[in-house]
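User: Predict the structure for this protein chain, please.
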Amino acid sequence: IHEVLVVGALQCNCSILGDEETREAIVIDPGDEVERILAILKRHNLTAKYIINTHAHFDHVGNCRELKEATGAEIWLHKADLPIYESAPRQAELFAMYGVKPIRMANWGKDWAIVEALKVAQGEYVRFLDSDDWLAAGANDAQLRLARDEGADVVVAGYQDCDEVSNTLHTLDWVDCDDFIAQQLGEGWSSHYSAFLFRREFIADIPHRQDFAFIDDRMFMIEVALGKPRLAVYRKPAFVHRRHRRGRLQDSGGIVKTVATWQQLTAYRKALAMLAAAGELSPRRKRAPLRFVWSLMRELAKTHPAEAAAVYDWIHELDPTFAAPIRRSLALAYRTLGFRRTERLVNLRARLLGRP
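Assistant: Here is the predicted structure, written as structure tokens:
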């Protein structure tokens, strides 16, 4: 038995899974409308054994206690989400207090959703946060105070990476850099844009572009950097990025990975062209993305060697002295055999060894 119902103002998907023999059930994400959930359990003559929460946002856990009281079911939740679970009532209060508006639209992707959301946004500052992730306690208020105190266009910060597969939590601090553009192009660690707070007026003309759908946040950050924002730095982690077995867009494979690779290369070409047109493409900024572009080129060469060869030439146009992060033997092969012939040999060897 499997039923899914959409509950609450934020349209959370609540699932009910029942065993036809034991008549026991689990309820996943009972965020609201506990009466409807109980009615389905009663209709199928099911007894709720466990209540499982995928994460602890209030729209997913809102009716957990009510359902537990009505059925006696145990509540299961990842331990990293416990502080968020305990703050669920406060989350709900803030939702109502600050006039949060749920937006429903046909599934045209994140880019269009953000465009529509910004049309109705009224706050001085905005943040972009995926539903898989959560804010660090107190970060939002602290970053907002910092933004106002320093008149910042962007408040940058580090974040924490929560890997549910390995059950680890790593803190990735913000790293200072004297060239924000070079940093966002790839010169050094640039954090994650969900850790940042943006002045709404500053990003009003910087959309999440559908042309770069798989890496829209990367293109967005490059364009933000090109706008030369006034920065403030929050020295604590601002949010928690969650990795889980269900996969995320950045972990794609197959043709999706190929398209994403091409979009990233196109984004860097466009960004450097914009800098060149403005007379701001310094040697440092030319070099900033090259190691990352090199890895993208190697990935592209597996399926599209001609396009990868053009990227190879572009890299060396930007920096004729570029030292590729590869074995000396492979670097020698590129110089003596040429890019295309070397890549054909590399791919042939990979296939013979059964490597992807």
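The two ends are 39 Å apart (CA to CA).
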